[in-house]
TrEMBL record:
<dbReference type="InterPro" id="IPR036822">
    <property type="entry name" value="CutC-like_dom_sf"/>
</dbReference>
<protein>
    <recommendedName>
        <fullName>PF03932 family protein CutC</fullName>
    </recommendedName>
</protein>
<comment type="similarity">
    <text>Belongs to the CutC family.</text>
</comment>
<dbReference type="GO" id="GO:0005737">
    <property type="term" value="C:cytoplasm"/>
</dbReference>
<dbReference type="Pfam" id="PF03932">
    <property type="entry name" value="CutC"/>
</dbReference>
<dbReference type="GO" id="GO:0005507">
    <property type="term" value="F:copper ion binding"/>
</dbReference>
<keyword id="KW-0963">Cytoplasm</keyword>
<dbReference type="InterPro" id="IPR005627">
    <property type="entry name" value="CutC-like"/>
</dbReference>
Length: 250
């Protein structure tokens, strides 16, 4: 695969197939990307294992919203880690904060122990933590493999200065995986600026639902207008990014 990573974030089999077609290194599997992603189901994981040969890291997030979880939610995450480890996932993606914005290192250590030999990522809870440099050192000490981050800004390009600092200060001790607003065009600008060679993208395009009959005046969850819009990974967007990374880092 070379000295780079292109991770595609997907929430359905169709998007996983597109990611594989585009040459993605691995996928982050979740459900409901439209709300930022929550934990996927075991049947979805099994379907993607059945139809693709991609490495799978599973996002474990019990709900939308912030990353300050209660005891029950922490136990839920830990059970999911065990479940996906036993199912053969390549890795898990987790994160949890204390009310004061610091990392909940006690739970993160517990998650790492349960994960065992699986790869483990600290997700974008990192982007809303109090002190990113301290947080990076803490998860390195805990033995995490990856930090998924936009540099504490809405997009990776906006967060490029912190991304550059993280890449420099990490000194190869942990993978810095740049995320949010990632496209080939953005990667082409971030690589020379930050030196980062690992990127996370959904590459999503809007697809229309197969429904031809649409009952007016009733919303199914988001809004009446958006209920028949589906977001799917575009294999050509993934391929363009992979082609650039391959040319640059191999």
């Amino acid at each position: 695969m070379g000295n780079y990573i292109l991770e595609a974030c997907v929430d359905c089999v169709e998007s996983a197939l597109a990611a594989e077609k585009g040459g993605a290194s691995r996928i982050e599997l979740c459900s409901d990307l439209v709300i930022g992603g929550v934990s996927p189901s075991l049947p979805l994981f099994r379907q993607i294992r059945k139809y693709t040969g991609l490495k799978i890291r599973t996002l474990l997030r019990p709900r939308y919203g912030d990353y300050c979880y209660d005891k029950y939610e922490c136990d839920e995450i830990n059970e999911e880690i065990r479940m996906f480890r036993e199912e053969g996932a390549d890795g898990v993606v987790v994160g949890i904060l204390n009310p004061d914005g610091t990392l909940n290192t006690e739970q993160l250590e517990r998650f790492k122990e349960t994960a065992g030999k699986m790869e483990i990522t600290l997700h974008r809870a990192f982007d809303v933590c109090l002190d990113p440099m301290q947080a990076m050192e803490q998860v390195i000490e805990l033995g995490y493999d990856t930090i998924l981050t936009s540099g504490q800004k809405p997009t990776a390009w906006e967060g490029r200065d912190l991304l550059k600092k993280l890449q420099e200060e990490s000194r190869g001790r942990i993978e810095i995986l740049a995320a949010s607003g990632i496209s080939c065009e953005i990667i082409e600008k971030l690589v020379p600026y930050t030196g980062i060679s690992s990127y996370h993208m959904s590459g999503k395009i809007e697809a229309d639902s197969a429904m031809t009959f649409r009952k007016p005046g009733i919303g199914l969850g988001l809004s009446e207008q958006d209920d028949y819009k589906l977001f799917r990974t575009d294999s050509s967007a993934v391929k363009a990014s992979v082609d650039y990374l391959h040319k640059t880092f191999v």
